[in-house]
Each structure stands twice: as C-alpha cells, then as structure tokens.
Amino acid sequence: MKIEQPELSLVIPLFNEEESLRELKKWIDNVLKGRSYEVIFVDDGSRDESWRVIEELAGSDPHRVVGLRMARNYGKSAGLQVGFQAAQGNVVVTMDADLQDSPEEIPELERKIREDGFDLVSGWKKKRHDPLSKTIPTRLYNAATRLVSGIDLNDFNCGLKAYRLEVVKAIEVQGEMHRYIPILAKNAGFDRIGEQIVQHQARKYGSTKFGLERFMNGFLDLLTIGFMSRFGRKPMHFFGALGALMFTISASGFAWLTIGKILSIAEGNPSRNITEISAFYVSLTGMIMGLQFFLAGFLAEMTSRNNASRSEYKVSSKINRPV
Question: Which of 185, 206, 231 is the last residue of a domain?
Fold first, then answer.
C-alpha cells in the first residue's frame, strides 16, 4: 500500500526524555485527530530509555512516527537539521519533547503559514515558568538579537515554531545556531517572519538540559551570525576596510613623528630619538596590525570565492519563455 505524503511534519529533537514521550504523542494525536501528519522524533544520543520508547511508538503507529537516533549527543541544532532533512510535510512545526510546548498551539501556527502567507512563525512564551536567573538573561539576549538582526521577535529561542517546507530545506543549522533560525531564514531570502504568543507549560518530568554556558555560547554565536549575515559573501569589505583604516591612521602618526624629527634636525633644535617616544611603537604596531587585517580579508575573500555556495541565490519567482 502506498503511503501518502503527510500534510504536516512535527520535528521533535530530544535528549533523555523517556518519561514524556508517550504523553506527548497522545497529546499530539488528540489535537491532530483526522489529519495527515508525521511525528519525527530525533533522539540526540539519549542515555536513558528514550529510544526504546520511540521504537514502541513507531511500532504502534508506523505510518506516522519516524525515529532518528544520533550516534552520540551532537546538540539541538544537529537534531533539528537531521529532522529537517527527513521532513516531508509542506508545513513543518518544531517543538520540544519535555511537554513545555503545547501541541494545542499547532493548528494556529499552521494556519498562519498556510493562510496568512508567513514563511516562518515563531512562538513567544510571553509568560514563562522560569526563575529570574533565566528570564532576565533571556530578555537581554533577545534584545541584543533584535538589534543585530533587525527582526522584530520577542523570543528567538522558543522551540515552538512553524515553517514552510522550503525554508527548512534551504537553511543549514550548525553548532548552536538553532537559536538563530529566524536569522538564517531571513539570510536565505525568507523574510516573511511572524510571531504568535504561546503558552509555556511548567516542566513536568526531569530537569533542563541546558546550563548557564548557553548564554555565553549564544552571545558568541550571535557575533558569528551577525558577521556572516553582513560580510559572509564579502569578507574583504570588513577586514580590508578595517586594516586600511588602521594602517592609514598609524602611518600618518609615524609620518608625523618622522617629519617632526627631520624639521628639528634642520632647525638645529635638540630633539629626542623617535625610538624613545611611545607613539612610535603605537604607530608601528598599528601599521603591522593593519597589514594583518588586510591580508586576513584577502585570504578570506579568496577562500569565499572558492566556495560553491557563494553563487547560490534564492529565486522567488520565474517566468519562462514559451516553448
């Protein structure tokens, strides 16, 4: 019997969530009763019985449940990327497996994609069941991300999101970039990005898998993606301009010291050796650093030009000549 392509794909990355999986699957089934959908569980190297539970769910509902088991714990970004590659529904929804994301939100997220024409709709957990030690850094992080990206979202890191299938197939989620999927989508040409207030459930089982290090990693990733968004295809515009500016200013200072020394000698006035002046070493260091930045930009530009994806651009519409 031929299995039809599902209308909706749910991508659920997880790590050590054996207690919640059965309840989550039952909740999803109740919400999407009568719909054509698939549930893709991505086990990111769990050390508990999560994979055994996924096998059990797949055995009882083989036409809907897809299980993917990572060889080790690679992180949430890798889990999402693998899930995106497997997704077939023309609308893809991501959610966490810890029951803090409610499946009741799925129909409205899907509607915004299908009817309102959004490429991506991100959930906003406006009221959170988290301590201040987590909510305050999260608000600061979201404010910084809005400033860098120009995308007006209140909760970039919310795991509950909906996408058109074309979006998840066009982006590549690496490292810890799952926090910045809206930015990746915008860079790929999908800039119709919306937001929906969603309910944040209190954690029912286990404990959070993320520590305080995620805030430092998030900040470093933000710098990376901010740079790549602006200069990924033209690194020379950043490093070359910075290097040229630094070299010009430093060379001007060096020239000013040299000319001053020559004039003092010509006029017979006593003067210090320029190697005894701290400004000489500051200027010399600036010139060396300027050259290094310029060469770094040149090498980055050469590397970028040899990247096959450099010439890949999204074409949103096309009119062909009649045959």
Answer: 231
- In the predicted structure, residue 67 carries a pLDDT above the cut 50: yes
Let me know whether 296 and 262 are in one domain: yes
The predicted model scores a pTM of: 0.74
User: Rounded to 5 degrees, what are φ and ψ at 199?
Assistant: -85, 135
- Answer yes or no: do 113 and 131 share one domain: yes
Residues written for the chain? 323
What amino acid occupies position 243? G
Supply 1's token pair.
């019997």
List, for residues 254-287, the tens digit of each pLDDT value: 899 888 888 888 887 777 787 888 888 999 999 9
Chain centroid to CA 230: 15
Lowest mean pLDDT, pick from 49-53, 83-87, 222-226 = 222-226
The DSSP H or E segment spanning 236 is helix 235-266
- Tally of structural domains, the chain: 2
Spatial CB neighbours of 227, under 8 Å, sequence gap ≥ 6: 238
Domain for residue 321, yes or no?
no
Amino acid code (one letter) for 217: N
- Rounded distance between C-alpha atoms, residue 167 and residue 119, angstroms: 7
Q: What does the alpha-carbon distance between residue 23 and residue 46 come to, in Å, rounded to a whole number? A: 18
Give bridge partners of residue 123 from the DSSP assignment.
196
Predicted pLDDT of residue 146: 87
Report the alpha-carbon distance of residue 299 to residue 313 in Å, rounded: 23
End residue of a domain, out of 182, 210, 231: 231
Task: Give the domain range for residue 129.
Answer: 8-231
- What per-residue confidence (pLDDT) applies to 216? 67
